[in-house]
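tool=predict chain=A
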Amino acid sequence: MTDASLLYIADPMCSWCYGFGPEMRRLVAAYGDRIGVELIAGGLYPGNAMVLPPGQRRWVLHHWAEVQAHTGLTFDFDAAMPEGFVYDTEPACRAVVAMRRLAPDMALAYFDRLQGAFYRQARDLTDDAVLIELAGNLAPDADAFAACLNDPDTREATQEDFHRRHQFGVRGMPAVIISDARGYKRLTEGYQPFDTLRKRLEKRLTRV
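tool=predict ok
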């Protein structure tokens, strides 16, 4: 393991983060034994309280279709974001932080599970009961996860994640940043294929 680490800034309800999932999994599989990976919940629309209007829903689905065309990933366009849906990504981000606090090695797997539930199964990630159910066998137990999900320290840590995203100047997600002895270097802000990321990472590692 080197002293370098990757900071992965993403939101479970960000469609390009979903599209980027396979590329990030390849990156972790290729470098996870050499480089630590820290998942930071970026907060796409945290705290949003407005019901998604039909026109906005069509706009969101248009972006989903772009991601599908680019990546070939599956989406449930029909059942997604039903009438009355509030696109608040804070609960899902907080759930990721809760998993990271309870079982750090499971955070990325939980993040992937949340994405699949939202985009392929139209599950409501603003519902605590859904977030707890999806934690399943990844968390120590359901009661512990439920308690951690609504723990004030978890809420504070989630806000800190949002703050870190802004500290790094990240506007678009997903973003991957390498942290090493030389400081921070952004490998990508937005979708990039694995081969591009690999070349950028190898270039950085050989210069450390």
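The mean pLDDT is 95. The chain is about 50% helix and 10% strand.
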